[in-house]
Amino acid sequence: MSPTPRPLVIKTTSGTERPEATNQAFTVAATAVAAGAEVSLWLTGESAWFALPGRAADLVLEHAAPLADLLAAVLDGGRVTVCTQCAARRGIGPEHVLPGVRIAGAAAFVEETLAERAQALVY
């Protein structure tokens, strides 16, 4: 019997201006969900926009899975959070985000990253 994968916290700070970094964060998150890991994807900075309906389609990257599909996979098996301050700076409220997306602050991020066995990645 193989051990349970450790929790994975992924934070992405970029949006359409850095498509490869953004897509990589979502790809790793979706792949980890598929592998059975407990995944928490944090959308900060410009990536906060991807929490809104239809916005993931704005990122198109050749030879990469569509961002909307990756986001759906993470929402289906993991957790997606938008940074409170990032959301506020962009006028994004809980009523604007996709179902299943939460808005939370630094205390929640720190709690997740300091959890036993947690691995944090930042893109």
Order of helices and strands: EHEHEHEHE
Rounded to the nearest angstrom, the radius of gyration is 14 Å
In which range does the helix fraction lie? 25-40%
The description of the largest β-sheet is:
5 strands, parallel
What is the CATH C-level name?
Alpha Beta
Which of globular, elongated, flat, extended, rod-shaped describes the shape? globular
CATH superfamily: DsrEFH-like
Stretches where pLDDT falls below 50 for ≥5 residues? none
Q: Terminal Cα separation, in Å? A: 32 Å
Residue fraction in strands: 15-25%
Q: What is the architecture at the second tier of CATH?
A: 3-Layer(aba) Sandwich
Structural class: alpha/beta
* Average residue pLDDT: 96
Which fold name is given in CATH as the topology?
Hypothetical Protein Ychn, Chain: A
The number of domains is 1
Total beta strands: 5
In which order are the strands of the major sheet placed?
4-3-2-1-5
How are the elements arranged and paired?
Blueprint: E1 8-12, H1 19-34, E2 39-43, H2 67-77, E3 79-83, H3 84-89, E4 101-104, H4 106-113, E5 119-122
Parallel strand pairs: 1-2, 1-5, 2-3, 3-4
What's the short story on this structure?
This is DsrE family protein. The protein has 123 residues and is of the alpha/beta class. The protein has one domain (8-122): DsrEFH-like (Hypothetical Protein Ychn, Chain: A, 3-Layer(aba) Sandwich), CATH 3.40.1260.10.
